[in-house]
């Protein structure tokens, strides 16, 4: 009997656990943000909600319709063959949307901080809605070629039985269009977004730092009383949220980007079905790290947005009260019966 590779065993356990925690975390995040009681502008709310929705769809597709289902159920027995292609099309749509929504959000913050003229017409709720819709539509179209890149592939289980998993087409290099697109992906969701994030965040942080020093100098505010200036405090909160989202994005996505570039320059090409090869192992770990971002984003919002944390605690307290409420307390009070004696 063949022994299952340890990385596959780890995936088999990891994805159900992340489904149990990551999906509720994304739904809670969407609900709190959409409620709108966070004292934040509409454009920021729209961007954060769109990011949370993309995270939810990503974990839904990856954990349930791709990995969990393919780990425990033979795809060819329950779903038609196109299900493999469709699930990866949706997966890459979510990937592109997440990446470019993060870029759009950082540019929105750059515009509102560094350019007064751009702020007046760009940093509005209407523009945010247009940008978000355009990114989702563009991501859907840009991910379309992946429909033909992934197919069910017959593999051998540890017990010797045959099984189908959804994987990259073995003869991808023999199809010029798909081979070219596979290389264009490196630019589409690695190089350009990474450069844009570093540039816009660097300029935003630099501008906030410089203007804060000038403001404090004009007001002659001692260094120990910086927090007394509400404008400085607001800018620092905005910078903290921006940096936390960017650091989270880089922490979860940069390893995947790096290993994808490594795969491009590895010769001979790595056999993706060799689950003991270091490149494949790192790639699978990076995929799990991306799924983990759906849960960590809620933690970031809880740490950086005070009102989000308050709403989260208020909701948790309400759920706890409902669960542990004594059954008799939910019953209406008994009617008073008057007893007359003769």
Give the full name of the CATH homologous superfamily.
Rhodopsin 7-helix transmembrane proteins
Structural domains: how many: 1
Global Rg = 25 Å
Strand content: under 5%
Question: Can you name the CATH architecture?
Answer: Up-down Bundle
CATH class: Mainly Alpha
Strand order of the largest sheet: 1-2
Q: Do you know the CATH topology?
A: Rhopdopsin 7-helix transmembrane proteins
Number of DSSP-assigned strands? 2
Largest sheet, strands/sense/barrel: 2 strands, antiparallel
CA(first)-CA(last) distance: 89 Å
Q: What integer is the average pLDDT?
A: 78
Provide structural commentary.
There is one protein chain. A two-stranded antiparallel ribbon has the order 1-2. The chain contains ten helices and two strands, in the order ααααααββαααα. Strand 1 (150-156) and strand 2 (162-168) form a beta hairpin. 28% of the residues are buried. The protein has one domain (6-317): Rhopdopsin 7-helix transmembrane proteins (Up-down Bundle), CATH 1.20.1070.10. With 342 residues, it is mainly α.
